[in-house]
Design goal:
Length: 129
């Protein structure tokens, strides 16, 4: 194997801004910040999500971000900062790296939704938009 997950993660960590759940929680009130949950829909249904978050499945992320894609989501074209998260922060770290490469202002939630939930921060149980 030429490159493994450890090296990919190390590269992403060097390039990506990461925020802890403590730093991220007040950002949920900022109209210029969009939280993006990239977990599988079954994870959302089972665990809930950060209130107000949008859902963008990891497998569709690049297609939803690119305005030239037939799958583009207009909310990704807004002049906002996007905070990506997954369960533990690994998938979202790589997703944030890709989003930055595609021109978005982005950050990754360190420790993911797991740390958020363990900290007792607000969790919403309905499906995100």
């Amino acid at each position: 194997m030429a490159v493994g997950i450890k090296e990919l993660m190390a590269r992403a960590e060097a390039e990506v801004r990461s925020v802890s759940h403590t730093e991220a929680q007040p950002m949920t009130q900022d109209a210029d910040v969009v939280f993006v949950d990239i977990r599988d829909v079954r994870e959302l249904e089972r665990e809930g999500f950060i209130p107000g978050a949008k859902h963008a499945p990891r497998g569709m992320l690049e297609f939803w971000i690119d305005p030239e894609s037939p799958y583009h989501k207009p909310w990704f074209a807004e002049d906002k900062t996007f905070v990506f998260y997954c369960a533990s922060g690994w998938r979202s770290l790589l997703a944030t790296q890709v989003a930055q490469e595609m021109g978005l202002k982005a950050a990754s939630l360190t420790g993911g939704f797991g740390d958020w939930k363990r900290a007792g921060l607000p969790v919403e149980e309905r499906k995100p938009k």
